[in-house]
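Hi L., both proteins are below.
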Amino acid sequence: MDPTPPSGPTPPRPPVLTGLGISPADERVYRAFLAAPGSTPEQLAMATGLTEQRVRRHVRSLARLGLLTEAADGPERYTPAPPDVALEVLALRRQEEIAHARLAAAGLAEEFRAGRLRGGGSPVQVLRGREAIAQQFFQTQQTAKNEILILDKPPYVVEPLRRQDTVQLERLDKGVRYRAVYDQAGLDGPGRAEATRDLAARGEESRVLADVPLKLVIADHRVALVPFVVASQEEILVVQQSALLDGLIALFELLWQRATPLWPAAPGAHQLLSPEDELLLGHLRAGLTDSAIARRLGVAQRTVERRMSRIMAVLGVRTRFQAGVRTTTLYGPGDGEPPGVTRGR
């Protein structure tokens, strides 16, 4: 018995299968088959609003993808394969294609490195232009699998900073470790201290240091981005694996050891201070005076002084220096590493 497709074309639905290599038109015909298995090209044309010639072309495409099987009850009769099985097979096939593409990319990268060495090429490239630099900055983070090291100081190439926070949160959620040393002056901008606190709550390990010497991003100990000139936003050096990269990594680790922990490495690192207390201490560690902190928080200077006295009482210390030392010990072990975390390469 013939199926009973809709009397006229149904409104097209938003495509959902393009990620599996199925075109929107193929998907539309496939959906019509699912609604009326065994339909003829003429019936499918009525249901989809496509011409019979186009329907036949999409039917052949769906058959090649394994989404349709030829029926035994007549010519040009097809039956849709069960979507859960057929689409799973396509998904697995696409995963295999991606895996092969990654292997090919690794081989091409090796050919590139070998050719550069044969030609006496340098492991250092100069990248110019704000747009190209921003793209490289985000791409370097998005391809990292283990750890990102950052020396952060103004001026900033990438604006708005919200985009960087979004990318970083995505990578943190994927298990990529972030360690950042912030320049003390860089935390003086509106909302900067609050932004670093939010990142710390999601897993970033952050420290602060006066006069960070340069801006730097290192991904997985395999590539570094560093400005050609510290204040320049138009040129950066892209440093591949080399003695220079090893030196930049050593510089970061040296500054990391010298820097002061800014926030707890993760939520609940200690229970003695409220989020408001931690924000005040963060401003204090960033080098702000009581009057500057008061302006930043929108309160009177006496309020800051009173809250600081209460924090010192809670921590059981007598001076602000002791409060800084005390909170540093609360934020992690002596070298600032969270317990149980090993440094990945």
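That was the first. Here is the second:
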Amino acid sequence: MNIADMPKIELHCHLDGSVRPETIIDIAKWDGIRILSLDIEEMKEELIAPLDCRSLDEYLEKFSIPNAVMQTKENLKRITFELFEDAANEQVKYMEVRFAPLLHTQQGLTVEEIIASVIEGMQEAEDQFDIKGNIILSCMRTMAPERAFEVVEKGKAFLGKGVVAIDLCASEEEGFCAQFIEPISLAREYGYRVTIHAGETGIGKNVLEAVEWLGAERIGHGVYIKDCEEAYRVVKDKRIVLEICPTSNVQTKAVTRFEDHPLYDFHRDGIEITINTDNRTVSDTTMAKEFNIVWNQFDMSDEDYREIYMNSVEASFAMDEIKEELRKYLVD
């Protein structure tokens, strides 16, 4: 099986972590934004997190430069278009891209303008390439819950028009779910689907609370259910899908080495997993790289690939007609 040629689906990809280094330099020159270097190799060193990162917080430091060039409608549209173009070139047939609108208001854009610009970039890519997509709005756990209400309310008008879900991301602390019960409940009432970053930094109980308190249908990462029996059982029994990001998980020290990742054990035990990049630029990766890592480290078969692909189809927040088209890429 040539993984590079296989159809792929990505459900966990951050816009600001997947900006082309060349684009950052180009925008910085055009907009007069001061960055550390205009040399492409030096820029890559600033953007790409090493495998020996000490923690999630160190990994997240790599996002400051991309955010600096993501403060206008034109730049947001361009960066989104280019991400979908890159994904299409990897044979990604469907992708859900997430981003935090409140990080892009520094030059006066409204949340509505920000969301609309990202959707426009996605739709232009859909028109030009063999790829479909949707947008997930992320709320920052480092901000007050009131700001999450703002995202939920202002994103409501875009539901069914490119936006499909709500997310919580950023640094993970124990018990964070309790602070966001009300805004996420309101989001569900409005029709948002729910995926939550949890269990990435050693706190398996956060996954349990994300499912039981926030109604999470999918979990971003979820690695540490391995150390929380109740979370593991709930994820398995309720068929909560895990958005696994192997390279990122090593960088953030969710696992120490690729071979230590529990994804193989999860998959064999019937937990539904998907494979994703998390951040193409910060993790210096592609979907093909992520699948090759998994296939090289674990005894995966063609049937495993099909199962993970179909997990991704069914777990996606796409409309039924898109799901039906995606199923056709892999037939018995």
